[in-house]
């Protein structure tokens, strides 16, 4: 079902719940994996994904259609993931590198994320990036989104995104070369 059809169903009070359920089924896995790449832990990713769809439910009737529906959901998801990480850091009064170490340990212990050695090294390198750079890298590299869509999701200019992706790639490359 297209986004336009989903939104038309959502506009009708009688089919609103069904439309939302269809939207969740259509986008839940994509949103989950975007969040998962940011927060690493499965349970945390589930919680954040649920929060994303709760926010979407409360805001969907005000969705103007200026962007694609998944772009709008990705924006909510990326903000929720970053907010989750910031809350976690504040809650436990830990510096950023401690959160990185915790996420790195979870990455190593997670059977769903345990790929080959190269994949694990790449994921650890990505964890070293600041959250915004990590988000940009994940959206460009893994989701293969064009810069224009990433710009809509993050509210950042295309030029700044290109620079951010370049620096993220450079940091990852440096990390991978230093751990040989």
UniProtKB/TrEMBL annotation:
Segments forming domain RNA polymerase sigma factor 70 region 4 type: 120-171
Keyword Transmembrane helix included in the entry's annotation: no
Gene3D superfamilies noted in UniProt: 1.10.1740.10, Winged helix-like DNA-binding domain superfamily/Winged helix DNA-binding domain
The keyword Transcription regulation belongs to this UniProt entry's keyword annotation: yes
Extent of the signal sequence: none
One Pfam family recorded for the sequence: Sigma70_r4_2
Coiled-coil regions listed: none
RNA polymerase sigma-70 region domain segment(s): 23-90
CDD domains named in the record: Sigma70_r4
Keywords: Sigma factor, Transcription, Transcription regulation
Family as reported in the entry's similarity comment: Belongs to the sigma-70 factor family. ECF subfamily.
Protein name listed in UniProt: RNA polymerase sigma-H factor
Organism: Dyadobacter linearis
Name of the gene this protein is made from: algU_2
């Amino acid at each position: 079902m297209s986004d336009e059809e989903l939104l038309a169903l959502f506009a009708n009070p009688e089919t609103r719940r069904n439309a939302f359920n269809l939207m969740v089924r259509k986008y839940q896995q994509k949103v989950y994996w975007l969040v998962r790449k940011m927060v690493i832990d499965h349970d945390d990713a589930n919680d954040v994904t649920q929060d994303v769809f709760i926010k979407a439910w409360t805001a969907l009737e005000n969705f103007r259609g200026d962007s694609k529906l998944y772009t709008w959901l990705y924006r909510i998801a990326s903000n929720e993931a970053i907010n989750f990480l910031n809350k976690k850091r504040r809650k436990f009064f830990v510096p950023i590198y401690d959160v990185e170490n915790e996420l790195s340990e979870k990455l190593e212990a997670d059977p769903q994320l345990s790929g080959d050695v190269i994949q694990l090294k790449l994921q650890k390198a990505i964890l070293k990036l600041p959250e915004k750079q990590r988000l940009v890298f994940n959206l460009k590299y893994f989701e293969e989104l064009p810069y224009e869509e990433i710009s809509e999701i993050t509210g950042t200019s295309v030029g700044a995104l290109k620079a951010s992706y370049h620096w993220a790639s450079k940091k990852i490359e440096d990390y991978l070369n230093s751990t040989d």
